[in-house]
């Protein structure tokens, strides 16, 4: 299902505050400077209306009676001061816009890398229980919502807010009564913003959800487009889409309507406010009411000049207010987005209490193990004992034993029951069984993608929960049915198994896996770029590459989970020798649909509903004429 | 391009025209109101009696009321017009896709089509709304402001006319430089998101090889490079606001200086102080409308790329056309390929199928074997005319497939595709794709043939079980069996299974084939398979290699003299030393079974 955006009551401000805190964590000084510059810029902008008033009073009026020459120098000084203020404001404007461009992109980069780094620590369970699309939307939609907020809404709101506060101050200084009138007007605007803007935000969220639904529907239909064609289902598909599309129209129409009428509403309330201020001002003059200002207290009757200046300011006040109200939708989106990002970051990382580590080792003829720095090709488990402070070393051999293992992905439903098995170093163990019988689950437990419920797993005699996960996994090679190659050259992809492998090592691994032939036939050979999960290769070729990737890692234990399922049987027959060589001297766990792949295993485990129901070599099992025999001859269905 | 898109406006023409008209009225009032305010102030200054104020105030209120009315209506119509246009466009694209042939579908990836239906259309919608609102508003505002200021004082108006030109040029240069940067960086940005997706998809590999830190470093480098590019573009665009302020403030300073001297020297005959403040308001309006216009330009340039992608779909012509006087009856299930060659595109160097000749009569079962890339799927795709043969002809029921009505033909030729899809909905709903009028009994009968009935009944809700998107809650084998049942419900004369039982176990597979033999003997069956066992008992087995039919024959014939068949057969059935023993075993088994059958 597509995600739904919703904003819980009371959480909005918290999310916004958290986001600002997150930004301040990286850009405290930059943001302080930005706020300072914005304030200066706002003050410079407003000073023009004050300036005009002063110009009339101190230059034009005396100039008209005394002549231009008398006020010429005064004018030059005033314009000079004005120019100075503007220049200063302009510098601040340049500084803050440039800083914001850097902060926006820098912060987004931090958000992305923080999310990505954090995601690397999530347990596999997280990825098994969330769709890729959902995880991706944290990186795309939610990050984008934040970008909108930081790059536009935040500076704009701060600027308008600073202007409003400055204006308020100036207005209070010219007339407290008229300021109260303006504030009353602002109260009215606020109410309208809340009603219209609130609706707009509500439908805007609904519209986003509706888009997500349309997207989900289109995705499903378009992926099945060929099925639609062969069943002549086009008309029905059109009808269904029209329904979804119609709902989207209705939400979109409403969201935009409310968004569009907000601006003219606020603007015209501003016009009305203008008239009201003029009337009240006129009434004050007529009524002979003494003016009250903040700085000078009670003064004379208000002058007409003050009222005119005041009217100008009330216009600016309105303009700034409407600027803020226009940001509602993007703020709402950013709040929803950042709430989701914080939720994502708060996911629990994979736990690891392991303390047994894997080290390079030198092993002498008597079997004494000494730890060393350089790569020797031999490995040992370094096992510190807390009780007596000693350290023991065990050679890495690839001996795996499971005793009475129970496991369930959810506690109430066990998928493995009493699984017991021994894999001696160099043995090949195969798992056979229907989908859902628990084959892959067993391998998930060996590399601790999941932890067992009950029982024991021993690796070279050590309880695997004591082994540090990264070291455990480094000692296991895994080839999956889903090949998952990465963008880069073929060489890069093979080298993924061992980052410091030389080209020769990679080519040797590819040869071993039987991939060398097709790679050399590609025009660019090993330098062929793979894009979009290797979409330029066939599924079988991709599987060969992922086998080569495991080969170069050269692990003592290998897990092959349907590793050759997409290689057609003839090709598999041809690469079989390479596969056999790859498996030589390693403990191998094989899961295969095709029984031909596993016939030469040392032991075959037949799984059914999470239990091992038969075990033995191929010949033994055939001779036994049990389930495996029936499965092999196609007379029995494991379900 | 615009012509193609404009076709989708349809019933929203009224709104699309009314909106700019109302916007023009609104913006005219909006420009007049400040001018009027100045006059009002002058009047009140001269006569500040309450009646005078009320009179002037009343007129202003009326103006504001009209402006509000026009503004609200314009906003409302603009919303409806743009949302309606977008909805029509979305519907048109979707409907267009429904007319696509397989060749057309292959051209566009589903995800690129989804992007067109969502992001691209949203961009177009925003641009459309901008065009019918702001693109009208800004020029009118610009013109009115300029005209007004010229009526006030020509000399001073020239000052900010000059400044406007400079600002316009400045904005133009900024965007000219920024747009190519953004175009590049958006591509990079998409790549970055792809790499995240790659990581999420490959998380098992990442964790198995303990490459978390390596992945983090790789991503940090990508993210940093995207950041730097974006930053370059944004820093350029960030010059907009200061450039704007520079222009306005320069205009104000110059107007104040020269204005003041003009007022004094001409003794208010050429300019008054209230006219001076009007001039400043107009200057601000004029310059800010320039700014808005430049924003519209940016929106349009973003939307242009989206519009191109949308038009690409809308102007795509289906490669398959229904004939003039189509035949609606498919007589029987005979199929014949006569010298058929086929390539997927005219540009392709090699033919995907090369001189295919094959004759199948009603009721026969044809097994098709061959390695990956041997064009097995291509071969059967020509029967329901999913593609047209490049050379030669394909006959169904004795007629060229191109003579039939497409729907009539496809109703008689049921295909179970290799990439099977179930849709979200109940099992019943999914099955009824095959036949919307099928009774419950018919559904059950089809499911029994496809060996799906038993597992369907094992679900708590039986046939009403809800299938999740992509059939996520049923196993691969179950999905394949449901898809077969769905095709059977069509009661087709020809049934094609394209590797449709690969996830079904061998036992069930053979039960399905047995059901076909007994229940639908008159239907011609084509079975593409990887497993020899799935085609062994076919009337004809076709071996394909490299787009050619290399051999046809029965199991025994091919086993005797076809190398590919032998290799495939032996690789699937026996390996190594104990192969012989096994051969004996399974031969015995087969004989026993064969005996029973007879």
Topology, please?
The complex is a heterodimer of chains A (639) and B (598).
Chain A: H1 11-66, H2 68-121, H3 124-129, H4 132-174, H5 176-223, H6 225-230, H7 234-287, E1 290-293, E2 297-301, H8 304-325, H9 328-345, E3 357-363, E4 369-371, E5 379-384, E6 391-395, E7 400-407, E8 416-423, E9 428-432, H10 439-446, E10 454-459, E11 462-463, H11 469-474, E12 476-479, E13 488-489, H12 490-495, H13 503-513, H14 516-521, E14 529-530, H15 539-553, E15 557-561, H16 569-583, E16 587-591, E17 603-608, E18 611-616, H17 618-624, H18 627-632
Parallel strand pairs in A: 9-16, 9-17, 12-15, 15-16
Antiparallel strand pairs in A: 1-2, 3-4, 3-5, 5-6, 7-8, 7-10, 10-11, 13-14, 17-18
Helix pairs in contact in A: 1-2, 1-4, 1-8, 1-9, 2-4, 4-5, 4-8, 4-9, 5-7, 5-8, 5-9, 7-8, 13-15
Chain B: H1 2-6, H2 13-46, H3 50-98, H4 102-107, H5 110-132, H6 134-152, H7 154-201, H8 203-208, H9 212-237, H10 240-265, H11 273-314, E1 335-342, E2 353-360, E3 365-370, H12 376-381, E4 391-396, E5 399-400, H13 406-412, E6 413-416, E7 425-426, H14 427-431, H15 440-449, H16 453-458, E8 466-467, H17 476-488, E9 494-498, H18 506-519, E10 524-528, H19 532-535, E11 540-545, E12 548-553, H20 555-561, H21 563-573, H22 579-597
Parallel strand pairs in B: 3-10, 3-11, 6-9, 9-10
Antiparallel strand pairs in B: 1-2, 1-4, 4-5, 7-8, 11-12
Supply the key terms:
heterodimer; A: 639 residues; alpha+beta; ABC transporter transmembrane region fold; Rossmann fold; six-stranded mixed sheet; four-stranded antiparallel sheet; 18 helices; 14% strand; disordered C terminus; B: 598 residues; alpha/beta; 12 strands; 65% helix; 10% strand; elongated
Radius of gyration of chain A: 37 Å
> So, the CATH homologous superfamily of the largest domain in chain B?
ABC transporter type 1, transmembrane domain
What is the number of independent domains of chain A? 3
CATH class membership of the largest domain in chain B: Mainly Alpha
Order of strands, main sheet of chain B, comes to 6-9-10-3-11-12
